Amino acid sequence: RLVKQWLTIPQFEERAVCGKCECIESIDHILITCKPHGRELVGQLIERAWAKTGEEWPGVTLGTILGHGLANYNPRRKPDTANNRIFAILVMEAVHLWKIRCEARIGATEGP
Question: Cβ contacts of residue 19 below 8 Å, gap of 6+?
Answer without folding.
Answer: none
